[in-house]
Amino acid sequence: MSLFEGGIAILGLALITLVTRAFFLYPERDLPLPGWLQQGLRYAPLAALVAVVAPEIFMTQGRFIDTWVDARLPGVVAATAYYLWRRDILGTIVSGTLVMLAFRLGLGW
Amino acid sequence: MTGTALGIAAWGLLTGIAMAKSELALPLALLMSLIVFAGSAQLAALPLLAGGAPLWVIWATALCVNLRFVIFSAGWRRYFGTLPRGQRLRMAYFAADLNYALVLKRFPVPPATSQSVPYFWGGVSLNFPAWHLPSLIGLLVGDRIPTQWGLGFAGSLALLGLTYAMLHDRATWIAAAVAGAAAVATFALPLRLNILVAIAAAVVVGLLIDHTTQRAAQPEEDLT
Hints:
By secondary structure, chain A is mainly alpha-helical. Chain A is built from four helices and two strands. The two termini of chain B are about 20 Å apart.
């Protein structure tokens, strides 16, 4: 991706963030929110996150991983366990990263 | 408030490192860090930008990740809807997740008062540097960290943590599982279309669950 194209993409990202944050705040009059949209909005952000994360965790170069010897897996297990224990995102990131590093650098997974 | 600012700072640092680790050119990473001001959208867009996905796929993904702000903006309107339009737009740019949580906690009853507006800007003045400074530091020093450590994984874990925070009932768990399976199963599609397939599948499944269980179990839908 060229610098110019990347710049356009990033300006668009900034604009999208502003538009979504201002969506109901900016108009002068109240906008009605249809019921099905309200319900669908519950799932779209969640799905977008999972769709980005799942391949990053379970795939290597476009293929589903076929081995347990992958440092990402214990990392995800540790992160998940920490989240269930503490419900804290920061600790989830730190614990998962440390476990992944321990397996990758210590055991060479 | 300092505790949450520390969390924001660590999150900003990790986002900066993830950006330094991606294939994104430094000027672009700096530009993104400075003007986008939305951590989860930045992390989601990162692999797409680095992999040269088409613009509309990048934007559609960010739009979906940011959809929660549309819901928040309906909440903000109840607080600040009577202020001048220019001021509302300025507030919207700075209205991150943390500020929403803080204002909601401090002022449970909506209408804007002489206190809630300064409180909002006070929160922003803490949140904004707490995000940007560590983010820039991570961006500039992240390159010194060897690639084989795979620290970009921290970015995936950050998104994973955000995902867990959104799972609060059976319907959201099932929708997430469907989205994950669909994204992996259709990964071979061009243009990262697997993301859009996953979103469509999860929304359809989620709405189906809502419409089949709503009347029996939960007459009042909790919109969060």
